[in-house]
Specification:
The structure is a single chain. The protein is α+β, with helices and mostly antiparallel strands. The protein has a six-stranded antiparallel β-sheet. Strands 14-13-12-15 form a four-stranded mixed β-sheet, with helices on both faces. A three-stranded antiparallel β-sheet has the order 7-8-9. α3 packs antiparallel against α5, α3 runs antiparallel to α9 and α5 packs antiparallel against α8. The longest helix has 20 residues. About 35% of the residues are buried.
């Protein structure tokens, strides 16, 4: 492509290759300026109806203007080559700055603030990024952050279901995956939201979660969710809580921890409801860091945060708080009001039965889970030890992973109290490891064709 001309853009040099195509540096001969040209993969634009819809989406994204969003100049097709002409941004990506340890606390908050403000502008126009990550944020030499590829991930969202058959066969060897319909996946594994990891609908709140991951990474130099394989990472995103940044790196402001925690909540409705609210909190935090003085939190905001803490600390949130309050009131009535011994005895017996029923609820749910998952033909064995469920399969495909983790997620939502149930899908056990697993305690299912070898 170097030396070729697309409309009035002359291709000068190769910049790099990505999941959706190849990026070149080019010159706009009309305006005599450098631009970045992304030439899209031919297989992504072979369907004419899909290509037409994508061009409409990309042109809609180009209408969003903000200093923190790399501008799209043109989207077109020349000689069966679909390309996008974008603002050429000189600088380094956030991931490069993190690797070189060139981002301090104030710089990290400043970059996050600029990107959150740009994100807010895009969300107001109903444009969702879908692939926010540190590689997609450039920081110019004068310190301005630019969010790249805005709206381009929509291209993968337009593929037909039939095109996916050969694309998502083995999730364990893939980092960036396409999403079309519920049950398939778009995004970069380490930066996905829980709903992306489970193949569900991607919304503006998904961008908020991914933004929280980037802020966490800038502040600590580490990713909040990590695994040996993309499957492990996606499982951690869906079910594990991130280590507090104040533990990973000392002396970070508690307010930054609170902001990141609100971004990284598992349920979309529990996160910041819009990027504007995130930007407002980041702006206040930046002011505190620059002044060196911690602002006093207004009483109404302090009460709001206290209620939020109760909501996420108690089982079932505010419903759990209500149940606990009613239980305390009833206990007080029974204790301080003149009540017969017989009534108290009956109340105690009923309470014990209720307690036993609730206490064994997790075991009953795990039994139902094992019965359901054992019907999957690819499942070889199921092992349950305490709160850890291990499902050994022939091959860990995306469909199997999503179905199993959806069941685990449903169980965790129904828990009254106690620790969450964790699950692992394994397809990497050697023959000896597998034999050792099925001989240990906790095995609740073994497929009929599995042979136990003599020791």
């Amino acid at each position: 492509m170097v030396g070729k001309k697309l409309k009035h853009f002359e291709i000068e040099e190769l910049l790099g290759k990505g999941g959706m195509g190849t990026v070149y540096c080019a010159r706009d001969v009309r305006l005599n300026r450098r631009v970045a040209i992304k030439v899209l993969r031919s297989d992504l634009t072979s369907n004419r109806d899909r290509q037409k819809r994508f061009l409409q989406e990309a042109r809609a994204a180009s209408a969003v203007t903000h200093p923190a969003i790399a501008q799209i100049y043109d989207v077109d097709e020349v000689e069966n080559t679909t390309f996008i002409a974008m603002e050429y941004v000189e600088g380094q990506t956030v991931s490069q700055l993190i690797a070189k340890r060139e981002l301090d606390l104030l710089g990290s908050v400043e970059v996050a603030l600029q990107v959150a403000e740009g994100l807010s502008r895009a969300h107001e126009a109903n444009i969702v990024h879908r692939d926010i990550k540190s590689d997609n944020i450039m920081v110019t030499r004068d310190g301005h952050a630019k969010l790249l590829d805005f709206g381009l991930a929509k291209l993968l969202d337009l593929q037909e279901e039939s095109d996916l058959v050969g694309e998502i066969q083995d999730l364990t060897h893939t980092k960036t995956l396409p999403k079309t319909l519920p049950g398939t996946i778009l995004g970069t594994a380490s930066y996905m939201s829980p709903e992306q990891a489970r193949g569900r609908e991607v919304t503006q709140n998904s961008d908020i979660f991914s933004m929280g991951i980037v802020i966490y990474e800038m502040a600590t130099g580490e990713l909040p969710f990590k695994g040996e394989t993309p499957l492990d990472t996606m499982h951690a995103i869906a079910f594990d809580e991130a280590r507090p940044i104040t533990i990973v790196r000392k002396n970070l402001p508690p307010e930054l921890h609170r902001i990141i925690s609100q971004c990284l909540r598992k349920r979309p409705e529990d996160r910041y409801q819009n990027a504007g609210s995130l930007a407002a909190d980041l702006k206040d935090l930046k002011r505190d860091i620059e002044s060196g003085i911690q602002r006093s939190v207004p009483p109404e905001k302090r009460i709001q945060r206290w209620l939020e803490w109760l909501k996420y600390s108690m089982p079932f949130g505010f419903k759990g708080i209500a149940v606990a309050a009613i239980s305390l009131i009833l206990a007080g009535v029974l204790i301080f009001k003149a009540t017969s011994i017989g009534t108290l005895f009956v109340a105690v017996i009923l309470g014990l039965f209720a307690y036993r029923y609730v206490r064994n609820r997790k075991n009953r749910m795990l039994k139902r889970f094992a019965n359901e998952v054992s019907k999957f033909p690819e499942v070889r064995t199921i092992v349950i030890r305490g709160d850890q469920v291990t499902v050994v399969v022939d091959q860990a495909k995306a469909k199997t992973y999503i179905r199993i983790n959806s069941l685990i997620d449903l169980m965790n939502k129904k828990l009254y109290f106690g620790s969450r149930i964790e699950a692992a899908v394994r397809d990497d056990l050697s023959s000896d490891e597998f034999q050792r697993v099925i001989r240990e305690s906790g095995v609740v299912y073994i497929r009929d064709d599995v042979v136990m070898k003599s020791e």
